[in-house]
Amino acid sequence: MKLFYLFQERECELPKIDVHLVPDRKKDQYKVGEVLKFSCKPGFTIVGPNSVQCYHFELSPDLPICKGECLSYNCWNKN
User: Fold this and answer.
1) CA–CA gap between residue 22 and residue 20 (Å, rounded)
2) CA–CA distances in Å: residue 42 to residues 5, 23, 27, 28
3) DSSP labels, 29-79
4) Distance between CA 38 and CA 21 in Å, rounded?
5) What pLDDT does 75 receive?
6) Each residue's pLDDT tens digit, 4-30
7) How many CB atoms lie within 10 A of CB 25?
8) Beta strands at 21-23 and 35-40: parallel, antiparallel or unpaired
9) With the CA atoms of 35, 28, 55 and 18 taken in that order, what torsion angle do they form, in degrees rounded to the nearest 10?
């Protein structure tokens, strides 16, 4: 007796991301194994991994965020 299994290819959805975070290829869905790389808009620095991978359960590790670089005198003149 032969058993046949039907496998539906799983995909990962891109969750809501930081407005300053720029994915290298923005799509609604990513196939298992695909790697998604990120950068930040000018004036921001990436905090966390610069890439994530689609696994059978979700994108991993957690998405990075972008932190603003302080260009104001007030940033350095704190009491």
Assistant:
1) 6
2) 48, 14, 22, 24
3) EEETT-EEEEEE-TTEEEES-SEEEE-SSSEESPPPEEEEPP-SHHHH---
4) 7
5) 52
6) 444 556 788 888 888 999 999 888 888
7) 9
8) antiparallel
9) 70
The pTM of the whole model exceeds 0.85: no
List, for residues 28-74, the tens digit of each pLDDT value: 888 999 999 999 999 999 999 999 999 987 899 999 999 987 655 55
Tokens of 61: 């590790």
In the predicted structure, residue 76 carries a pLDDT above the cut 90: no
| Beta carbons within 10 angstroms of residue 14's beta carbon | 16
Token pair of 71 as six digits: 């260009």
73 Rama sector, left if φ>0, alpha if ψ -120 to 50, beta otherwise:
alpha
